[in-house]
Amino acid sequence: MAKNLTNSLIDRKNILNNDYALNKIEDDLSLGGYYWKDEFWFTKNDAAKLFDIDIRTINNYLSKNEDELKSNGYVVLKGKNLKEFKQCFSDEIYLNSKVTNFGLFNFKSILNLAMLIVESEKARQIRSRILDIVLDVIAEKTGGQTKYINQRDPEYLLGTFRENQERKKFTEALNKYIDMGNYKYGYFTNRIYECIFKENAKEYRKILNLEKRDKTRDTMYSEILTNIASFEAGLAYEFEIESKTKKRKLTRDEADEVLNRFANHPMHKPHLDDARAKMASRDLCFRDALHYKLESYISSVDKKDFDKFLGDVSKSLEQQIEENKEIFERLKDK
Question: Model-level pTM?
Fold first, then answer.
């Protein structure tokens, strides 16, 4: 889906928190600047020239977006720092001796400014290039398969193993304690999905544009799999208790009543809120997939997630299997 960086704080944060993309963007754009304290810096005049706009427009954006720009590196030099900067660049920048504070953009905050300015064609071109590079970086790291970017999480393999174990116990509980036909397995799977992330399997697959051969759970993040495993384990226990209390298998209505009571327990809320936020936010950022029923949970993706799925700690599923082969053999034998 098309992204309009000028009016979406979340989309701007998702780029500015992505150090892997920022490094590529800096190399690609080659904006120049004054190299000071291990970074390139830009004055307000530099910004005005770069975007071909009046410096008053720069000041207006600073006034309206000061907190955001400062959070991404814009600084106002004073005292010792201002004196040092003057000494370093006295031949290139004239600063009146009466100036007691001086604003500077680092590379990250100058990109932030480019994402805000609507009056500048140059800013629009930079935004377009930024979006292209972000897509290229993700495609490069994932081999073009963002569908399975979840599997690059070092915790994914353990999460899916745990969920598979609990899934077996859950289906055994459905067989022993629920008096329904074979459709009960798909029925309660959908009910659990709806409880955790407000979508049934069909809705989820449509949003991620999964093909018939794709397995739904192969695309889920480790935290989601852990929530499903926890939910299945708890629900299997509740079905068993209720069935033994009644000394018979449960009807669908009775099982639904147990599920609703279990799902609405307050202990689930923090975990469900966290799972929904992670899935909705990551899918929008990495997969460009919007979970409409979870829009209120969407926030920006933090740096740890970029490390987890794009950084050095991220690994292909094949690597994880090879590295953990002995561990999972031992777990399987228990």
Answer: 0.87
